Automatic annotation (TrEMBL):
Entry superkingdom: Bacteria
Protein name: Putative pterin-4-alpha-carbinolamine dehydratase
Reactions listed under catalytic activity: (4aS,6R)-4a-hydroxy-L-erythro-5,6,7,8-tetrahydrobiopterin = (6R)-L-erythro-6,7-dihydrobiopterin + H2O
Presence of keyword Cell membrane: no
Keywords: Lyase
Gene Ontology molecular function: any one: 4-alpha-hydroxytetrahydrobiopterin dehydratase activity
InterPro entries: PCD_sf (IPR036428), Pterin_deHydtase (IPR001533)
One GO BP: tetrahydrobiopterin biosynthetic process
Organism (species): Modestobacter muralis
Pfam families assigned: Pterin_4a
Gene3D superfamilies linked: Transcriptional coactivator/pterin dehydratase (3.30.1360.20)
Amino acid sequence: MARTPLTPEDLADALTELHDWTGDVHGIHRRTQGIDFRAAAAHVLALADVADALDHHPDVEISYGTLTVHLLTHSVDAVTELDVEFARRADELLAAQSVGLDGA
Ligand SMILES: C[C@H](O)[C@H](O)[C@H]1CNC2=NC(N)=NC(=O)C2=N1
C-alpha cells in the first residue's frame, strides 16, 4: 500500500465512511469515551497486531474512561491510505470487542 499523501478531498471522502474518526491531512484520530480501562488496554493490544501486519503504528492515549488513537504516516508527515486502512481495521476490532463484552 502506497505511502502517498492523500489529498484533502480524498481524505474527506475516506472520513465519510470512518464515522468515528476526525482530522485532516496533518493527522486523523478516534476518541472513544466511556470505555473501561482494561477494555482500552485490550483494544490497544489488538491494534498491535494490526500495526505489525501493516508495518504501520498508531500513537495511542489511554486515560480513565477514554482511549484516543492517532494516525499519521510519519515517513511522509501526512495521512496516507495506510492510515485509512488502519482506521478501518481498528473500527472492526473495536466493534467486535464491544459485541464480545456486551454478549459476555
Ligand atoms: C521501518 C518501518 O517500516 C517504518 O519505520 C514504519 C514503521 N511504522 C510506521 N508507522 C507510522 N505511523 N508511520 C510510518 O512512517 C511508519 N514507518
